[in-house]
Amino acid sequence: MAVLDPNEIFTTAFEPKQTNRFILLVDGFPSYIIKGVSAVGLAQEVVTLNHINIYRKVKGRTTWNDLTMTLYDPITPSGAQAVMEWVRLHHESVTGRNGYSDFYKKDLTINILGPVGDIVSEWVIKGALITSAEFGEYTWDGTGEATNLTLGVTMDYCVLNF
């Protein structure tokens, strides 16, 4: 006869993380203009070691996936201006000079919030830099929706604190 485990038959409290409960902290950006950010991800290469008629696989290099950030572009403070100030640290289009990585690389923090606004998880993105920026679309056919900015961001690595 099977023995019942009380941990398996009674209800367990379960509160899932929700996609709309987050705050992204970026130096120079007000948090309320950040509409969304893709989740952190990684890929690990595989190295194959050949030996006579067999092979063995071991882990190779780890690569962190790029993030996509979506921002609102309010009139004041201008979201586009905040993006361009970060871009100018990478490259100044008027003079053609590039910046030092110490100036344009930033550390970002994604705080995942619980139902009462407490921080239940924290990702720290280290050495983030902009790889692409799109400043929205303007059309006479629009219905008056807010303009969105889209940033492609790459990083050195990420740390999940909790």
Q: Compute the number of structural domains.
A: 1
Gap between N and C termini: 41 Å
Strand content: 35-45%
The largest pleated sheet is described as: 7 strands, antiparallel
Mean pLDDT: 93
Secondary structure class reads: mainly beta
Number of strands: 9
Question: What overall form do the CA principal axes indicate?
Answer: extended
Q: Give me the number of helical elements.
A: 3
Q: What is the radius of gyration computed over CA atoms, rounded to a whole number of angstroms?
A: 22 Å
| Contiguous uncertain segments of 5+ residues | none
- The amount of helix comes to 10-25%
Q: Tell me, what is the CATH class? A: Mainly Beta
Run of helices and strands:
HEEEEEHHEEEE
CATH fold-level assignment: Pnp Oxidase, Chain A
Q: Which architecture per CATH?
A: Roll
CATH H-level homologous superfamily name: Hcp1-like
Write the layout of secondary structure elements.
Layout lengths: L5 H4 L12 E4 L8 E4 L4 E10 L2 E11 L2 E6 L6 H12 L10 H4 L1 E8 L5 E16 L13 E7 L2 E4 L2
Antiparallel strand pairs: 1-6, 2-5, 3-4, 5-8, 6-7, 7-8, 7-9
Name a few traits of the molecule:
single chain, mainly beta, Pnp Oxidase, Chain A, extended, two-stranded antiparallel sheet, 162 residues, seven-stranded antiparallel beta sheet, 9 strands
3D architecture notes:
The chain contains three helices and nine strands. The chain is mainly beta and 162 residues long. It has a single domain (20-40, 66-160), classed as Pnp Oxidase, Chain A (Roll). Strands 1, 2, 5, 6, 7, 8 and 9 form a seven-stranded antiparallel sheet that branches. It has a two-stranded antiparallel sheet with strand order 3-4. The protein is extended. The model has no long low-confidence stretch (mean pLDDT 93).
